[in-house]
Input
Amino acid sequence: MGKQVRVYDNTYSLPIDVTVGQIVNSSTPKYFTGYSYLRGKKIKAISIMPLLVNAPSGLGLMLTLRDGKGNELLYNYPMSDLIVSNVQFGSPLNRLRLFNLYDLDLENSYWSQTQNIGYGAAQRIVIINFHY
Amino acid sequence: MLQPIVEKSYLVELNLGTVVGAQRQVNFQFIPQLKDAIIYGVEVFSIAQFSLSPNGATVVSALGLSDLTVTFAVGDDQDVFLQPCADLNPALVGGFIRMYNNKRFNLTKSFITMQGVANIAANQAVLFNFFYRSK
Output
């Protein structure tokens, strides 16, 4: 017991952008198509940097991650639970969530949200940081 | 304080139903992914973390969580009895995740109890996040 220390060799950051005039429907999973870089890596922690006021909680942002065999590792994990301190917006929890996610397959994983998103301008709503 | 290193998680939505009332109980639905799963942590979320539930219901407020308790059964035994839902909300307890000693919760025999109705309303949802490993 006691203090937990985890050492990360790398961090891979993945922005979530919404383009001008795009309506992002809440019922559609948004796959991380084209992001194969983390394939096979063991993820040790995940953190979220919100770039819009209350984006993770207000939009109900969620993360579903699968491994290379198609097994669900995280199912509808709330991004608001991954916000750590030193961010612009949101309610930091000051507790970095620790994971042992083996063989992550980002291309077979997706983000989703419970509210429709529609902005008049291009927006970067959050950045997801994978520590591995 | 030791915190879990999460291998798998599953978000479960529990709807309070069309009628709320003191001492009223609502059971969990059967979740195939959590059958016989070994559960070592549970979180509960309020509207402060989730503006709308995945099924489109209004989420219970942080104050509303203080009206609710949860009972988790292992087999037929109620191993976790009337635990306050507010105690499982990380935002209310310094960001911590409450941990359990590798329990095989029998969700269909587990339920929430409305201890009061001052801050909850019909058709609101409570969101539980279970941290588990497969058998």
